[in-house]
Design a protein that fits this description.
This protein has 376 residues and is of the alpha/beta class. It contains 13 helices and 16 strands. The protein folds into two domains: 189 residues, Rossmann fold; 160 residues, Rossmann fold (3-Layer(aba) Sandwich), CATH 3.40.50.2300. The chain is elongated. It starts with a helix and ends in a 7-residue tail after the last strand.
């Protein structure tokens, strides 16, 4: 459970009903760089079972393809995505014993490893890099490779404004493309979902988050699509400030929605606070509903959300990588929206807030949770 909640902090950007492990017992492990390499061991031709039809990968003409998969942080969400990346590559003929040499690099959530990883990738000169992103690697790994000529594909966060990887239309600015964290209209759709469940009825919303993940203007525009005014946009670096904002707007009758971006995990004295503990506190103390973009946040107690399936994005980015391996220019691969997004609800939270889900929304939900973090 702690891994799930930490994922929310890192990417609520997340976070998510696909918790499976990754790794292969057939891969050789090295001890210095947390990497594993799958070498070519035979010369068989591999059958391509991709959705585009059955074709053969010609090893003679293509030779062994070098593939690097970088996993920014090892958690249940990224493990699920990682597993699907490798499975989709294998379905298309790129696996150990076929025509690929796959190197996996584990960053273990350590941003300080970024330069080392960039240098390793440049040394390997792979045919494609798949970056299994959580929060920082779009800036610290993908951006430094933008003009390297090495094709890089991101499982999410390709639109990161601080990285400058694609233009406003999703066209790569260099050799990097991938998948958006969420569609451009995702927030508006999420706010529309909340308005159908708990109409604001002329009241306002506040948005609480930590700095660096969201833009106030984006929130304002998305709220305008459902006719709701933003009363306050609060960026709290410290848990104490976030708690104060929750208590303040609990008592504000003008506010209908208390929206959440990303929870903080730092106290004013510099010590870290468990995100599980803080999330449980927030859910237990907040008296107004919120909506999110990640299923895992709903699982621990946010009222409702449009859940991006992180595991499915592993399949999606691997399919983009297959195109590159078969000769498609990375410059032709416009960034893609996540292709699987589900309605997720938390019935326990609804009961606590005395809210009843409309029958049509309840019937269309992919997942309905009956507990919150405060109950576990």
């Amino acid at each position: 459970m702690k891994k799930k909640v930490v994922s929310i902090l890192l990417c609520l950007v997340m976070a998510m009903s696909m918790f499976v492990g990754c790794g292969s017992k057939n891969e050789a492990q090295t001890t210095n760089n947390d990497t594993s390499t799958s070498a070519q061991v035979d010369e068989k031709k591999a059958e391509d079972t991709s959705s585009t039809g059955s074709t053969k990968v010609d090893e003679t003409s293509q030779g062994t393809k070098k593939i690097v998969i970088v996993q920014e942080a090892k958690d249940e969400l990224r493990d699920a995505s990682q597993k699907n990346i490798k499975a989709t590559l294998e379905k298309n003929g790129y696996a150990s014993g076929k025509n690929a040499e796959i190197t996996e690099i584990q960053m273990n959530g350590d941003e300080k490893k970024s330069q080392e990883v960039v240098d390793q990738i440049k040394t390997l000169k792979p045919d494609v890099v798949i970056l299994n992103v959580v929060a920082f690697s779009s800036k610290s790994v993908a951006a430094p490779l933008l003009n390297s000529g090495i094709p890089v594909l991101l499982t999410l966060n390709v639109e990161d404004p601080g990285a400058g990887l694609v233009d406003e239309n999703g066209k790569p600015k260099g050799s990097v493309s991938g998948i958006y964290t969420m569609p451009k209209d995702m927030r508006a759709k999420a706010f529309d979902l909340l308005n159908k469940i708990y109409p604001a009825k002329g009241k306002k919303a506040v948005f609480l988050t930590t700095p660096g993940f969201f833009q106030k203007d984006d929130i304002v525009k998305s709220l305008q699509t459902v006719g709701v005014e933003l009363k306050d946009y609060v960026e709290s670096k410290y848990t104490e400030d976030f708690e104060a904002a929750v208590k303040k707007y609990n008592a504000d009758d003008e506010v209908a929605w208390m929206l959440t971006g990303v929870w903080p995990g730092l106290k004013k004295d510099g010590s870290a606070m468990s995100i599980l503990d803080f999330g449980a506190w927030d859910i237990a103390n907040r008296k107004k509903p919120s909506v999110t973009y990640w299923a895992a946040a709903v699982e621990i107690g946010i009222l409702c959300g449009l859940g991006v399936d992180i595991a499915e994005q592993g399949n999606q980015v691997a399919e983009m990588a297959v195109k590159v391996l078969k000769g498609e220019s990375i410059g032709n691969l416009t960034a893609e929206n996540p292709r699987k997004i589900d309605i997720v609800l938390n019935q326990k939270r609804a009961k606590d807030l005395k809210i009843e889900f409309p029958a049509d929304i309840l019937g269309s939900a992919a997942k309905v949770y009956d507990k919150t973090a405060a109950d576990k």
